[in-house]
Design a protein that fits this description.
CATH architecture of chain A: Orthogonal Bundle
Distance between the termini of chain B: 49 Å
Largest sheet of chain B: 6 strands, mixed
Number of domains of chain A: 1
Order of helices and strands of chain A: HHEEHEEHHHHHHHHHH
Helix content of chain A: over 70%
CATH class of chain A: Mainly Alpha
Distance between the termini of chain A: 37 Å
Structural class of chain B: alpha+beta
Strand content of chain A: under 5%
Number of strands of chain A: 4
Number of helices of chain A: 13
Oligomer: heterodimer
Helix content of chain B: 25-40%
Chain lengths: 299, 387
């Protein structure tokens, strides 16, 4: 025992390479962003090393062009925040609703063919995100696949406008993030003891009751992991809203990019990025607390 | 204490739609199986798990399906439960055809081999699950749950999760959960196989007590012949998807119809002998060593004179006598001491092996290897096997 304790003294050094990478690659840039959010914007982008709360102030408020002392609430920024959260929640929900039957289908295949189905689910991951997004665009644009087929069938006369709407962004994000929901759900279902499903049927439960009272509670860890994995990248998504929303419907990622680019207001961009981080962490803490409380209530 | 209240029994009856008088009459068949087959897979890969099973199970009996693994006993149980649908034939529960119905539409509950308790529910929630799914009022669910907890002596564990109780306790909860909806038939799929010997003995008598108290028909699947003999009213011995013999434990043990049954249940001596005369239900045979004896014939079997048949006799149906004074003579090979009795392994004069079981008392002396002795067979104990 004493020997184990002793050798423990230097063994942490084995972690050092990973620690160095993590500190330099993750914490370092984060600290820079934090620092930038409290500085003054430079004229041609970048920052001037003067402390200022202006970046954080501008996240929520807007100054009148002629009289900087006239302050109004920046409802454009707030709308972007709200839309990002709302679309991310919708994406998570859509992924859960569509991902559940998908994962169930895979989990109930014979073990030999499961690998194939999982492979098919993960194929999109191997393709460049931008290309995948353009593929979606090809399907939903005015003279794209859906509208052409519907017009050819005579269902509609004029194309349905799907591009550059919230619907397009939602569809694109659900498509892009679906594997992140399906895989943890599948992992949870793979561990599910199917005799419990039989026991449910045996005890007079209908299909829906078995789903509700037996299957869903048992695969809940998969839903939790999947929801977190989908929600977090959704809220910061940049490429998908940019291409499918066409810049008309802006999301947080786009707003931040705008400040670092054309806006040339790096402190504001940094403050927005920090705020996004706070929202994600806050949502995560809130969600996990809620899950734990549900768990406690059931115990 | 009658667990099946009249009211609940009436509800089940309404579900199944059969007449009341038929129910109440003793000896009515709870389950009627006719020409039932189950084939898994198709074409060349097809596997016939059950072939043309015809079987009646009486209301209120403790019925056991006994056989080695892969004999089809679990498949038959799953077909009765509704987890598998028969490929052909009919299955009636309480007079109502149920082939095609799902498990949730049959008045039958199962105790699973590994219990299959819902891990996210408490013991009480597990027990109340069936009633809740049937849409019974909460007060009734709670009352029955309490009653069931008391029945299986698990009151103190009501709020525990299945992972927080022992294997034997999980077994009790699984029983209570399956009994709570007051099924007409309780199916038990090797429920005791996961328990250690002492606990298994306890649960055997516990099961028997519950069956007597509730009056519910139990169908018990096991590969343990001793378990089957001690607990059952009737036993069906299965092999390769067929029922080989159906009867009381006494019948199965003392009058096995086939070599497989005789071999599977208990220790048995097989003697190949020649037939010297045949009467209506018995044959005179010549034993190794030249003496004659009478052996009972199975129904419908008429061996020809001189034909060699296999007879069977249990180890406890012979006694040791002086050489030349019994029906058979042989030499002791070894003696195995079991406490209450000793198994003496002999080689008969014509080379056939014979095991004799002798009950021990303080005075009995172990026979030594190499000793010659005679064997006196109990009258009427020899039976000719079919085939």
């Amino acid at each position: 025992m004493a020997e184990a304790q002793e050798s423990h003294g230097w063994k942490w050094l084995l972690c050092a390479p990973a620690l160095v990478v993590l500190v330099l690659a993750a914490s370092g840039p984060l600290l820079i962003v934090v620092a930038y959010s409290f500085l003054t914007p430079g004229n041609m982008g970048g920052v001037v090393w003067d402390f200022s709360l202006e970046g954080w102030f501008r996240v929520f408020f807007r100054r009148d062009i002629f009289d900087p002392d006239v302050v109004t609430l920046n409802d454009a920024h707030l709308a972007v925040f709200w839309r990002s959260i709302w679309l991310s929640l919708q994406t998570t929900f859509l992924c859960a609703v569509l991902g559940f039957p998908t994962a169930w289908f895979i989990a109930t295949r014979p073990p030999s063919s499961r690998t194939l189905w999982l492979f098919l689910i993960t194929i999109p991951f191997w393709t460049n995100l931008l290309i995948r997004t353009f593929a979606i665009q090809e399907v939903i644009r005015n003279n794209g696949t859906i509208n052409t087929v519907l017009q050819w069938m005579g269902v509609i006369d004029t194309p349905i406008q799907m591009m550059y709407t919230d619907f397009a962004i939602l569809l694109g994000m659900a498509y892009v993030f679906m594997p992140l929901m399906v895989l943890p759900l599948y992992a949870a279902m793979d561990k599910l003891d199917f005799r419990l499903v039989e026991a449910g049927y045996d005890l007079y439960a209908s299909r829906f009751q078995v789903l509700w009272h037996v299957i869903l509670p048992l695969v809940k860890p998969g839903f939790i992991a999947g929801s977190i994995l989908v929600f977090i990248p959704s809220i910061g998504a940049y490429v998908t809203p940019r291409v499918l929303g066409g810049g008309r419907t802006m999301m947080l990622g786009n707003l931040i990019a705008l400040q670092f680019g054309q806006g040339r207001n790096w402190p504001l961009g940094a403050a927005l990025a920090m705020l996004m981080l706070i929202i994600v962490v806050g949502a995560l803490v809130f969600y996990l607390r809620w899950v734990n409380r549900e768990e406690g209530r059931n115990a | 204490m009658g667990v099946i209240s009249t009211k609940a029994a009436a509800t089940i009856r309404d579900n199944t739609g059969a007449s009341v008088t038929e129910q109440e009459s003793s000896g009515a068949n709870e389950i009627e199986i006719r020409d039932l087959s189950k084939v898994f897979g198709q074409g060349t890969a097809a596997f016939r798990a059950l072939s043309d099973i015809t079987l009646d199970i009486r209301a209120g009996e403790f019925f056991t399906l006994l056989g080695p693994s892969g004999c089809g006993k679990t498949t038959l149980l799953r077909v009765i439960a509704g987890f598998e649908q028969p490929s052909a034939g009919s299955l009636r529960i309480n007079g109502k055809e149920v082939a095609g119905l799902g498990p949730n539409a049959r008045p039958v509950n199962t105790v699973f081999q590994n219990y299959a308790l819902f891990p996210h529910m408490t013991v009480a929630q597990n027990i109340g699950f069936g009633l809740k799914m049937q849409g019974r009022p909460k007060a009734e669910v709670d009352a029955t749950t309490t009653e069931m907890l008391r029945l299986v002596k698990m009151e103190a564990m009501a709020e525990r999760k299945p992972s927080e109780i022992s294997g034997g306790q999980q077994q009790r909860v699984a029983l209570a959960r399956a009994l709570a909806p007051r099924p007409r038939v309780l199916l038990l799929d090797e429920p005791l196989s996961a328990l250690d010997l002492k606990l298994r003995k306890e649960m055997q008598s516990e099961l028997k007590r519950l069956q007597t108290e509730t009056g519910i028909t139990f169908i018990f699947v096991t590969h343990d012949q001793e378990e089957a003999l001690t607990m059952s009213d009737r036993i069906a011995v299965m092999s390769a998807g067929n029922i080989l013999q159906l009867g009381t434990p006494h019948d199965i043990y003392h009058a096995p119809s086939e070599r497989f049954v005789a071999d599977f249940i208990g220790d048995t001596n097989f003697l190949d002998v020649a037939v010297s005369a045949v009467t209506d239900d018995s044959a005179e045979i010549t034993l190794p060593g030249g003496k004659t004896a009478t052996a009972r014939l199975p129904q419908g079997m008429r061996p020809v004179l001189g034909e060699t048949v296999t007879t069977v006799i249990r180890p406890e149906q012979a006694n040791m006598v002086a050489p030349g004074e019994g029906d058979l003579d042989g030499e002791v090979q070894s003696a195995v001491f079991f406490g209450t009795d000793t198994h003496v392994h002999l080689r008969l004069d014509d080379g056939q092996p014979f095991i004799l079981r002798r009950q021990n008392s303080a005075e009995t002396i172990e026979p030594e290897a190499g000793t010659r002795m005679g064997l006196l067979l109990s009258p009427g104990a020899l039976r000719v096997l079919k085939g």
